[in-house]
Amino acid sequence: MAVGIFDSGLGGLTVLDAVARRLPDIPFVYLGDNAHAPYGVRDPDDVYDLTCAATQTLFDNDCDLVILACNTASAAALRRMQEGWLPEGKRVLGVFVPLIEALTERRWGDNSPPREVAVKNVALFATPATVRSRAFQRELAFRAIGVDVEAQACGGLVDAIEDGDMILAEALVQSHVEALKRKMPFPEAAILGCTHYPLMADAFARALGPDVQVYSQADLVAESLADYLTRHPGRIGAGRAPAFLTTGDPVRVSARATQFLRRSVTFRPA
Ligand code: DGL
User: Fold this and answer.
1) Protein residue whose Cα sits closest to atom 2 of ligand 1
2) 145 C-alpha to center of ligand 1: Å?
3) CATH of 97-216, one of 3.30.450.20, 3.90.180.10, 3.40.50.1860, 2.60.410.10
4) pLDDT, tens digit, for every residue of 52-93?
5) Atom of ligand 1 nearest to the CA of 73
6) Is 52 one of the catalytic residues?
7) Which residues contact ligand 1 via a Cβ below 6 A?
8) 2-94+219-269 maps to which CATH number?
9) Sign of the torsion formed by the C-alpha atoms of 254, 259, 261 and 265
10) Alpha carbon of 231 to ligand 1 centroid (Å)
11) Are 260 and 10 in contact (CB under 8 A)?
């Protein structure tokens, strides 16, 4: 009964941590495509090919359902995978929709027409590829009207986090928030639209100030996955053993993951 969790690297661990806390009886198989991170500077075809390959690895590890715990993959590849690639009996879910449902005060899976919502000015922090895709704005337009979204592509931030260079990461957060505020001085809400960014949540909160509500995905994805599995209990695959897989160097990736999760994590080759 395993569920797969995929990210280009370590960011998806923020989602894994929340879903494992919410659903302690389900074994999760995590796959980080660290050999090819970051995805945020790649073109959509490249992200699509890498995401399909990684998802197939998780299917081969007895997962029937895979969560793309990566906004870049969710933005560039998810719809295309669902429309033309997905093998019979397998499912892939992204991380955008639960976030947007929370922002627009909807119940999970509420597909009623778009309506006015309380929040009017939203800052989106994401990778260059996610910002370029405009997938967030597209999904938001299905659910809400009159919301102004200002997007900031946070170049360099994923690299700094993957390298464990938290001083550089903090400086980059500060400068990306300043750049955003030059375009939108008073956002009411900020979306951390990359699963790596919750690892810098304190730095974002400090730079944004106390009046901005910061939304990050991990707990929202965990809640919506719990709801999905209640409605589709058959979607849990045959696998029984939790595992951490990487396409990168398992020793290096295990050390970083242990630092981020503050517990011992051992990756093995995918
Ligand atoms: N953590 C990923 C995301 O949510 C990908 C970051 C990257 O590889 O650039 O977008």
Assistant:
1) 70
2) 27
3) 3.40.50.1860
4) 999 999 999 999 999 999 999 999 999 999 999 999 999 999
5) 10
6) no
7) 7-9, 11, 37-40, 70-72, 127, 130, 158, 194-196
8) 3.40.50.1860
9) positive
10) 29
11) yes
Q: Where are the alpha helices (DSSP H) in the chain?
A: 12-22, 44-60, 71-76, 78-84, 96-103, 128-133, 135-141, 157-162, 166-183, 201-208, 217-231, 250-261
CA distance 221 to 50: 22
Q: Indicate the domain borders of the chain.
A: 2-94+219-269, 97-216
CA distance 6 to 69: 5
How many of the other CB atoms lie within 10 Å of CB of 158? 27
Enumerate the β-bridge partners of residue 215: 191
- Give the C-alpha separation, 184 to 94, whole Å: 28
The residue behind tokens 């969560």 is: 67
* Distance from residue 39's CA to the centre of ligand 1 (Å): 6
Q: How confident is the model at residue 2 (pLDDT cuts 50, 70, 90)?
A: confident
**pTM, to two decimals:** 0.93
187-210 pLDDT, tens digit per residue, is 999 999 999 999 999 999 999 999
Q: Is 63 a catalytic residue?
A: no
The first and second tokens of residue 38, run together, are 């970051």
The pLDDT tens digits for 229-252 are 888 877 776 667 789 999 999 999
Q: Which of 213, 204, 44 is nearest to 129 (CA)?
A: 44
Q: Which residue type is seen at 138?
A: R
CB 23 within 8 A of CB 227: no
Residue 44 has pLDDT above 80, yes or no: yes
231 burial level (CB within 10 Å; 0-12, 13-18, 19+): exposed
Tokens of 219: 């707990």
